[in-house]
Amino acid sequence: MTPAPPDHHQHHYASNDASAAAAPSSSVFTAVCHHAARAIGATVTGVTPAGVTPNFHAVDIPHAQHHIAVLRHITLPLIAFARPRASGDVTVTFVDHYDLAAATINLTDAQVLTVEQLRTPLAQVDLSALAPYERDQVNYWKPTTVGELLFNFWD
């Protein structure tokens, strides 16, 4: 099950979701971002494919006075927007970009997550469906929010 907007109920996050099987390659995601960027009058200026770390592809799109990094989880059908990171920086600062979200939603089946969803404390999330090795990673790295769990630089 993919994330739902935060509320007072427990949420369920599982990386072994059946919908994760259709995760696109970096080139497919990059093509989606090129189309979305054109739809809002912007262009793609950089692409960083996922690797051992980070666990997400990143596409940089300057738009108006803002630079946006579009993040696509390497296996889960999830997209987030963030401020571009400096080289070597492992901090992800999530942002909302409504125009780019609207353009992206029309081009992919992946869910675009909001800052509110990404800031959801893990204490409000049901992680019981995670595989044992994933729970070990959570215990080791100690993420505090959904965003830190989903988009990370763990090895």
Structure description:
- It is a single chain.
- With 155 residues, this protein is of the alpha/beta class.
- It has helices spanning 26-39, 98-105, 115-118, 132-141, 146-150, and strands spanning 11-12, 46-48, 56-63, 66-73, 78-82, 94-95, 111-112, 125-126.
- The strands form two sheets. Strands 2, 3, 4, 5, 6 and 7 form a six-stranded mixed sheet that branches.
- Strand 3 and strand 4 form a beta hairpin.
- The two termini are 24 Å apart.
- The model is unreliable at 1-21 (pLDDT under 50).
List keywords for this structure.
155 residues, alpha/beta, six-stranded mixed beta sheet, two-stranded parallel sheet, 5 helices, globular
Task: Describe this structure in a few short sentences.
The protein has 155 residues and is an alpha/beta fold. 26% of the residues lie in helices and 21% in strands. It has helices at residues 26-39, 98-105, 115-118, 132-141, 146-150; strands at residues 11-12, 46-48, 56-63, 66-73, 78-82, 94-95, 111-112, 125-126.
Rg calc? 15 Å
Describe the largest sheet: 6 strands, mixed
Shape: globular
Q: N-to-C terminal Cα separation, in Å?
A: 24 Å
What is the total tally of β strands?
A: 8
Q: How many helices?
A: 5
H-E string: EHEEEEEHEHEHH
Beta-strand content bin: 15-25%
**What is the mean predicted local confidence, pLDDT?**
85
Provide the helix percentage: 25-40%
SSE-based structural type: alpha/beta
In the predicted model, the low-confidence regions spanning at least 5 consecutive residues are: 1-21
